[in-house]
Amino acid sequence: MEVWDIYDKDGYKTGKVKEKGEKLNSGEYHLAMEAWIINSDSKILVQKRSNSCEILPGVWGLTTGRMISGENSIDGCIREVNEELGIKISEDEVEFMRRIFRTDLIWDLYLVRKDIDLEELVLQENEVAEAKCITVNEFKEMLEEGRLFKYPEIYEILDLVEGDFH
């Protein structure tokens, strides 16, 4: 059973842990991450979630994941990118962009600059159905068409990422 560390409203560990699926109380948060993987052509790596995924099945998005107990979000980012896509990244390739608080989640967003050979990806079948690299304009089109997971801050993050290209 997966165990998660519990954080407070300020982003500090409380010392409590809960099993995955266990309800979090008001003011309790769990740590998660999102990786924006960008290649030297300024294309963004997106992945289509498997139809068997519990959350957002069949929807395109960025690489995301929840941190297991004892893991910080950088280590979790490295682990999730490797587990879901078979891409090995190191800590010096992971750049913190922003922290977002949700109802019961703290999302740490990271930028990873790396050229990926799509033919070499090893997709985690129960999580990822497909992956591709797309331009910023294609990313925006997919958002507007509802094919890519959209959250309130995504355009702000896209602006940050896009500004980093230049």
Feature tags:
166 residues; alpha+beta; Nucleoside Triphosphate Pyrophosphohydrolase; six-stranded mixed beta sheet; three-stranded antiparallel beta sheet; 3 helices; 20% helix
Can you offer a commentary on this structure?
27% of the residues are buried. This protein has one domain (32-97, 105-165): Nucleoside Triphosphate Pyrophosphohydrolase (Alpha-Beta Complex). The protein has three helices and nine strands, in the order E-E-E-E-E-E-H-E-E-E-H-H. The mean pLDDT is 94. The protein is 20% helix and 35% strand. With 166 residues, it is of the alpha+beta class. A hairpin with a 3-residue loop joins strand 7 (94-101) and strand 8 (105-113). It starts with a strand and ends with a helix. Strands 1, 2, 3, 6, 7 and 8 form a six-stranded mixed beta sheet that branches. The chain has a three-stranded antiparallel beta sheet with strand order 5-4-9. InterPro entries: NUDIX_hydrolase-like_dom_sf, NUDIX_hydrolase_CS, NUDIX_hydrolase_dom. Keywords: Hydrolase. This is NUDIX domain-containing protein.
